[in-house]
Design goal:
By secondary structure, the chain is mostly beta strands. The protein is built from 1 helix and 6 strands, in the order ββββββα. The longest helix has 4 residues. The protein starts with a strand and ends in a 6-residue tail after the last helix. 23% of the residues are buried. The model has no long low-confidence stretch (mean pLDDT 88).
């Protein structure tokens, strides 16, 4: 599909941001996307919640679609689980804060 590079920002301590993680976009729409990733908690910051599962963390991502300029998006994770493939990977669904103009105009994965 497409490559995505994302970081996770702590909702409780916004100055705390994970190192970048590279994943693969599984599904993409103007409202959100699902991402297959090798890590759910880069640098100990879970993609969905803080360690007490009280505060939502934020995800900032750049989507790289071949033939199109990179698109930056941000939002929150609404679900996650283990991925079927590759073994040991995870998948999460992310809802964008604001739909991007590029996705609203019909950016499609090739």
């Amino acid at each position: 599909m497409a490559t995505v590079v994302f970081t996770v920002q702590s909702g409780r301590d916004p100055a705390r941001i994970s190192s970048p993680v590279t994943g693969t976009v599984r599904d993409l729409s103007a409202l959100g996307m699902s991402v297959v990733t090798p890590k759910l908690a880069p640098d100990g910051i879970h993609v969905m919640y803080d360690t007490l599962m009280v505060t939502r963390n934020r995800v900032d991502a750049t989507v790289f679609v071949e033939g199109d300029p990179p698109v930056r998006v941000s939002g929150t994770v609404v679900w996650f689980r283990g991925a079927d493939e590759p073994k040991g990977a995870y998948i999460f669904g992310m809802r964008f804060d604001n739909p991007t103009k590029e996705f609203e105009e019909g950016l499609t994965l090739r």
